[in-house]
Structure formats: C-alpha cells, structure tokens
Fold:
Amino acid sequence: MVASDAAHKDSKHQESTRKNITFLTCEDWMTSKLYTVGPNDSVDQARALLRTHRINQLPVISEGKLVGIVTDRDLRGPGLTAAGAPIPATDAAKVNGKTLVGSVMTHPAIALAPHSTLINAAEVMRLQRIGSVPITDGGRAVGIVTRSDILEALVVFGTGRHTRLNRA
Structure:
C-alpha cells in the first residue's frame, strides 16, 4: 500500500468514526442508576450520598419530577470556597449540615431528553460550565450524562472498540 493510500484509508476511518459519534444518544451513554435527594433533605444527607457513591452531582426530585440539581460545590462550607479561601461569614452561615438542599440547589436544572445527542450534551455542559446534565422523560429523571460518560464515549469510538468500557 502506498503512503497516500494509507492516509486516505485512515481519513476515511476517522470520517466514519466522526459520523458515528455525532449520532450517539444520551440514553445510550447516560448513567441510569440515579442517586437523588429531595429539596427538604439536609446538606449532610446530600454530602453523604456524594461521598459514598463518589459522585459530584445529585438531581433534586420532588413529587417524582426533577426540580433542580445540587453539586459538591453547592454543598461546600461552611467557610471555604472551592479554592479553600475563607468566604464572608454571612455566606458561610448559609450552608451548614442542617441546611435544606432546596435552599442551595440550582433550579431549574438544565435537562435534556433521552434522544438528545452526546454532542448536544457536551455543548450544553461547555456553554453552561456544568459537569453533568440530567436526562428527563416527561419531567421525570431517567438518567444523568456526566463529563466522564462523554469522555468514555470519545475513548470507545476513538479507539474503534464501539462498546462501553467495563465499569468497576
């Protein structure tokens, strides 16, 4: 095979892979085992879930519907910012272990439908500067797509394996 033929074959493979990645849907790559909290749960309960399951975001559910999202950043404190610098006493008093999730969650949460593409999810996360997007069907949370899910899809399709990696 001539070098130019090999380069052409490689570019065709990359083009084919690119087309496949474009059509990957959230429902095929989302994490469907959701850990959630309610708006009346305490910050301590939410922190415990995050720590136990080694996750960074929790959809907030009320009456079966997604009403917001709370992240590890929302639950920091009292008294420390993400960089570890002290925050003003008035802000530190806002978040303690007994604080209700509903008072620190982001609402409404940005959500996508199961048939949305991973490209769309990645664009939303980048533009909104968020680490995940809940996936909803009729307002009911059915999964969540995280940066890790998108990176996994990129690795799987970029290497030509086309099957999900084993999760430990």
